[in-house]
Amino acid sequence: MIQFKNFSASFGGRKILQELTFSLPANSITSIIGASGSGKTTLLRALCRMNDRIENFRVGGSILVDGMDVCRPDTDVYALRRKVGLIFQKPCVFPKSIIDNVVFGIREKITKKDYPDLAEKVLREVFLWEEVKDRLEEKATTLSQGQQQRLTLARTLAVEPEVLLMDEPTSSLDPKSTAAIEKLVQSLKNRHTILWVTHQHDQAQSIADRVLVIEKGQVLPLSAPIVRLVKPFTKAG
Amino acid sequence: MNAITAEKMVLALIGGVTFLIVALLFSILGVMLAKGLPAMHSGFLFDASRDFGRSGGIFYQLTGTLMLMAVAVLWSLPVALGSVLFQTEYLGAGKFKNLLTQLTYILNATPTILFGLVGYIFFGVYLDAGVSWVTGSLILAVMILPTLQVSIREAVEALPEKYRETGMALGLSRPTQIWRIILPQSFYGMVTGVLLGLARAAGETAAIMFTATTFSGIQFPQLFSDPVPTLQTHILVLAQEAANPESIAQAWGAGLVLLGLVFLLTLAAWAFRTRMVMESEL
Predict the structure, then answer these.
(1) Considering only residues 78 to 107 of chain B, which have any Cβ-Cβ distance to chain A shorter than 8 Å?
(2) A35 has a pLDDT exceeding 50
(3) Tag placement on chain B: N or C end, fewer CB within 10 Å?
């Protein structure tokens, strides 16, 4: 369960998110839609403290992930980021082999002989195993954009996060790869709480159990016209 | 005057200046080759000098120069790398970071003779290292520190932010990110920095002339307190004090070798830099 309580974020005096209060149930997919600059990405990044390096970025209120306040200064950010994984808009693979990319975030915690089993497990989860099983030692940069995005998802899954934050993960992909990622996300819902930022209303409706609309740093009230996009939570698997 | 005429004049001006620079470089190279090549013989690089530099080769001067350069980089590299990582990975953008950057540039512009003077007083006299290769390498290390620092910082800062963000998003600690992402991904840039630092060390003469080197009496230092023969001292002493043409020819030969060394290092640095740019564009 993720809870935002009066959460605000600002950059250099400019308010980006204002007094957000809402909850997201565990093991669900929530789509976040909104215009460019409305604060969608900031919301995701705040959840895993990715803006800590940015000077003049300030937050107020709290965000609780399973009861842990991620905004507290004494929060173990490294543990938090392993618990709350972030997938970026454009896939970023390291110029290393496919298998090295898969185990990149977990390498210190497992032995080398465990690499193949872990790689197979997470690559199967993202429906990439059959495409790469014979070339695990090849450079990951040789994969297509869609394959790279699934590889980055596999790399994140290898760290075993409970929450997956996806920042427009299909915006740079072709329709076939987009469909593959959407199908994949549905399959991950049983074990992960997923937040999916998108610009596409159709996509938001089709994949999510719940749609949140952010405008000018605020979540639109349910009485707003956009309520037609919100599916009853119980209907979606 | 219309815009096209003005453009042609500017083009002619900057083209002329470029030609002047290239011509200057090639004329230096031409003179060095014309004067230095006659001194080259089969044993020039591998024989010891004889008759106070009048005959023989420059083996010990060359090894002494390489030794001073290499040891200076060994002293300087950890300091430069540490300060770069502190600046880029731990300090946020702000006044203190800018101050550090400006200080590095000021250090880079300091006259080298001042490094020699202050370095000798501190290392040679205060730390009692005397006129020795240790004193010289420490002074050279301080002198090449800004070159190394700037080159390595540029390499680390050129690293696409997406790599750092990916490491962060996977929950890697900062030291792990440095070890697993920053250092490997900016490796070629660092090698470029080291090579430029070596080239700078090879080109420095004034600061080590009276603090570390000797013309004769020692071939290869046996003790920490021994001075070391170098190409720079060899060239200077032969050019200033020798009257016979054989010695002058030997000085030109040694000069050509020193120039070749700097050229090689710079070319290698350029090759690595090209590789670095390609990697960062992946």
Answers:
(1) 92-94
(2) yes
(3) N
A198: Cβ–Cβ under 8 A, 6 or more apart, which residues?
A31, A32, A33, A168, A170, A171, A204
B160-179: average pLDDT: 93
How many Å apart are CA B232 and CA B116, to the nearest integer? Answer: 15
- Give the residue among B131, B137, B141, B123 at the shortest CA–CA distance from B218: B131
How many CB pairs below 8 A link A and B?
A: 54
At the top level of CATH, the class of B43-280 is mainly alpha
Per-residue tokens: B110: 């300091």
A2-89+161-235 — its CATH code? Answer: 3.40.50.300
Reading the block at residue B232, the tokens are: 């720079």
How is residue B46 written in tokens?
């591998």
Contact assignment for B282 to A159 by CB distance below 8 Å: no
What is the pLDDT at residue A225? 38
Contact A195, A207 (CB under 8 A): no
Taking CB atoms and an 8 Å cutoff, what residues of chain B touch A82? Answer: 170-171
Interface contact A53, partner B, CB < 8 A: yes
In chain B, what are the domain boundaries? 1-39, 43-280
Task: Tell me whether B171 touches chain A (CB under 8 Å).
Answer: yes
Rg (CA), chain A: 18
- Interface contact flag, B282 A50, Cβ < 8 Å: no
CA distances from B185 to A148, B74, B82 (A): 19, 21, 16
